TrEMBL record:
Coiled coil: none annotated. Keywords: ATP-binding, Nucleotide-binding. This is ATP-binding cassette domain-containing protein. Residues 1-20 are annotated as: Disordered. SUPFAM superfamilies: P-loop containing nucleoside triphosphate hydrolases. One of its GO terms (molecular function) is ATP binding. It comes from the Bacteria. Gene3D superfamilies: P-loop containing nucleotide triphosphate hydrolases. Pfam families: ABC_tran. InterPro entries: AAA+_ATPase, ABC_carbohydrate_import_ATPase, ABC_transporter-like_ATP-bd, ABC_transporter-like_CS, P-loop_NTPase. It comes from Agromyces neolithicus.
Length: 268
């Protein structure tokens, strides 16, 4: 199947060629005889939500893992802000400003909301208490956590001292996304953020994604939920059999069209 691009960057005029904030070019990844990625390219532009869809085994997870340092591609190039990057581990991607929220969330249930937001990046008190005795600045972290939640429009988490184990699934997802937004200065990657959530909580997460975009933070959204994808995505990258089958928009194609391309019943 040909690698078809149905649209340019959102908001770009015909005379402009905007620079993708994140770009993958001809990525190849194999696992023995199994081909995970077969020359896949992807472009994420500033201030957009790019959905990545595809059937099981299409290469979605492998693509995202290569972009975020969890896997190292066998061939191809990845660019961030137009500069080549070579991520060897997820910490490299995080250090470069790419934050990922995986399906399992990786939150610590026993810790409160603020502590989870700063997990692995705890703020220390100023002066000798922080530098020598490594005393954590709980007050500062809680103030920052409240500000971050408020800025993202998260109203369901009023108390940042509540242990995460006492929160609902949607609230836990909000904590994980808020953590990514707080530290993902360039890109936020969300892997099935509405999976296993009810309608009301799913809608809250979708609003959160829109808020991230409104703040200028580009988002890669991996999802099986077509209505959610068509609700928030500016463009949709479709994976099929380890290749990019097409990149479409909700304006240019319907959900039925997207599924047909994803399953091979139609071309873009």
């Amino acid at each position: 199947m040909t690698d078809t691009i149905a649209s340019d960057a959102p908001g770009a005029s015909p005379d402009e060629t905007p620079t993708p904030i994140l770009r993958a070019r001809r990525l190849v990844k194999t696992f023995g005889r199994v081909v995970g990625l077969d020359g896949v390219s992807l472009e994420l532009y500033p201030g957009e939500v790019l959905a990545v869809i595809g059937d099981n085994g299409a290469g979605k997870s492998t693509l995202i893992k290569c972009l975020t340092g969890a896997e190292i591609p066998d061939e191809g190039e990845i660019f961030l802000d137009g500069k080549p990057v070579d991520f060897k581990r997820p910490q490299d991607a995080r250090a470069a400003g790419i934050e990922t929220v995986y399906q399992n969330l990786a939150v610590s249930p026993a810790l409160d909301v603020a502590a989870n937001l700063f997990l692995g990046r705890e703020k220390r008190k100023k002066g000798i208490l922080g530098s020598v005795f490594r005393v954590v600045d709980q007050k500062g972290m809680r103030e920052k956590a409240r500000a971050e939640l408020r800025e993202l429009g998260i109203t369901t988490l009023q108390d940042v001292t509540v242990p995460v184990e006492n929160l609902s699934g949607g609230q836990r997802q909000a904590v994980a996304v808020a953590r990514a937004a707080a530290f993902g200065s360039k890109v936020v990657v969300l892997d099935e953020p509405t999976a296993a959530l009810g309608v009301r909580e799913s809608n809250q997460v979708l609003e959160l994604i829109k808020n991230l975009r409104d703040r200028g933070i580009p988002v890669i959204l991996i999802s099986h939920n077509m209505p959610h994808v068509f609700d928030v995505a500016d463009r949709i990258h479709i994976q099929r059999l380890g290749k990019r089958a097409a990149t479409i928009t909700p304006e240019s194609h319907s959900m039925t069209d997207a599924v047909a391309i994803m399953t091979g019943a139609a071309r873009a």
